[in-house]
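Fig. S4 source data, part A: sequence.
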Amino acid sequence: MFTIGNERIALVTDTSCDLSDQQLAEYDIRLVSLRVATSQGEFRDRREISQDQLYEVLKTELPKTSLPLPEDVSALYRQLQEEGCTRILHVSMSSGLSGTYNMVRIMAEDFTNIKIDIYDSHTLSCGLGLLVLTAAEDLSKGMAVEDIMTHLDHVRGTQLGTFVIRTLEFLRKGGRIGMVEGVVGTLLQLKPVIFVNDDGVYQTLTKARGFNNALNAMCDEFSKRYANAKVRMAVVHGAAYEDAIKLQDRLCGQLDVVSSFISPVSPALAIHTGPGLLGAIVQRAE
């Protein structure tokens, strides 16, 4: 929790941020869990099902994802109040990809004894994670919440989050295919480089024949967009850690990277992308 003037401010996000437990603990960032529903029952993302467990399930079925339980959100808000919190900044995953933002925005209206600001990040995974870290750093510097949300708008405008997946099957079955499907030629093995656009939905940035060529195209795009700029970076993967290390090394060789980290995508996101995903989120450093 952060103390600024007379306010005690808590920073909240959801499990789609893909930040590690260590990163969350460093700034006392609180999480609400998305849900994963399988034939064996329903599980809280990251808390009751791990990425490895999720990939085992994917071998036999395609689970579904759900919004956080309303009672989990309200319990967290009440707990923060009991800890002396007077204001909450809740940075949510994209409203274009989940109903989480709208749900917590409506729920926040019921808490009349505490000020709750809900921010739509228009992104997810470590795109969301990097914005949450930016908010934490701003709070540590004593910046006002209103100014932080304006700052997040600016930072999000400098950010590009992209990924390449082995198959579009999971996105299609999960209903997240969005603006991607029309550009894919299955017979030609065209692989889209998918990004989260300014509206917070998936769109094709470019495409190439085969997975490795798509990775090359993704890296080329970063080089073009961030030439001569200092950047912060996160590399994400779906059960492909060794490949993620190679991608991180490659991008660190191409870009002026001031900080970077590698993170697995959360189970709730992995359902829609499947194993083998590789991606990167880059934003300008300040």
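Fig. S4 source data, part B ends here. The chain has ten helices and 14 strands.
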